[in-house]
């Protein structure tokens, strides 16, 4: 008889504990859904890229440099509806920004341009990394977007500076000097001239 009461007591206790667990799970689930909605809302509001070329050089390069055009086009298309769409877009941007460095036009193949692209790559890949974390740091994601926009402006200004510099006519003899700088075999050797009057130790 005592075992029967004990069994009933354990059964009642088990039912109440299951009910409590279910309520806790539901509360956590609701809290998680609300948190994800806030994260999505913050990212959706902050996802504003300046994808329009800011100068004539950047505009012209959208025609001849297909990787640049593809990157700007992708930046201009804002994802919709789900955080998954933003994650997919960030992954695409990461691939497209890497292509800028791989298929760099000859006129822009210099250290200044490469360093600008490297900084842009770093920022875009950080965006891709943050947005794919399990607990998305939405504030960090949103903070990276203006940084990416700043690097885009710097990159386009560098492109314009290179083109403007190449349009400056060379002075007489400057082309010869540039050839000598590039071709070290033609350069005058940089060995110190010895004074024949200086005493030598033999």
The percentage of residues in β strands lies in under 5%
Give the overall silhouette. Answer: elongated
Radius of gyration: 31 Å
Question: Under the CATH scheme, which architecture of the domain at 26-165 would be assigned?
Answer: Up-down Bundle
Mean pLDDT: 81
Q: Indicate the percent of residues in helices.
A: over 70%
Uncertain regions spanning at least 5 consecutive residues: none
N-end to C-end Cα span: 119 Å
Strand tally is 0
Order of helices and strands: HHHHHHH
> Can you tell me the CATH class of the domain at 26-165?
Mainly Alpha
Per DSSP, the total helix count is: 7
CATH topology group of the domain at 26-165: Four Helix Bundle (Hemerythrin (Met), subunit A)
Main β sheet profile: none
Structural class based on helices, strands and sheet pairing: mainly alpha
Characterize the structure shown.
By secondary structure, the protein is an all-alpha fold. It has a domain of 140 residues: Four Helix Bundle (Hemerythrin (Met), subunit A). It is 71% helix and 0% strand. It is built from seven helices and no strands. The mean pLDDT is 81.
Brief account:
This protein has 202 residues and is mainly α.
Q: What is the element layout, followed by pairings?
A:
Blueprint: H1 2-46, H2 56-64, H3 66-76, H4 83-102, H5 111-131, H6 138-166, H7 174-182
Helix pairs in contact: 1-6, 2-3, 3-4, 4-5, 5-6
């Amino acid at each position: 008889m005592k075992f029967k009461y004990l069994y009933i007591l354990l059964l009642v206790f088990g039912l109440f504990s299951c009910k409590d667990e279910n309520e806790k799970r539901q509360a956590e689930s609701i809290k998680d859904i609300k948190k994800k909605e806030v994260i999505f809302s913050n990212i959706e509001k902050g996802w504003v890229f300046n994808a329009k070329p800011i100068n004539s050089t950047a505009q012209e390069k959208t025609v001849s440099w297909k990787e640049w055009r593809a990157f700007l086009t992708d930046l201009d298309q804002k994802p919709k509806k789900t955080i998954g769409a933003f994650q997919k877009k960030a992954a695409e941007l990461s691939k497209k920004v890497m292509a800028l460095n791989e298929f760099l036009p000859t006129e822009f193949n210099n250290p200044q341009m490469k360093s600008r692209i490297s900084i842009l790559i770093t920022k875009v890949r950080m965006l891709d990394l943050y947005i794919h974390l399990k607990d998305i740091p939405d504030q960090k994601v949103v903070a990276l977007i203006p940084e990416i926009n700043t690097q885009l402006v710097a990159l386009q200004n560098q492109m314009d500076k290179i083109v403007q510099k190449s349009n400056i006519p060379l002075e007489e003899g400057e082309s010869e000097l540039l050839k000598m700088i590039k071709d070290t075999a033609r350069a005058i050797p940089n060995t110190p001239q010895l004074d024949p009057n200086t005493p030598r130790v033999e």
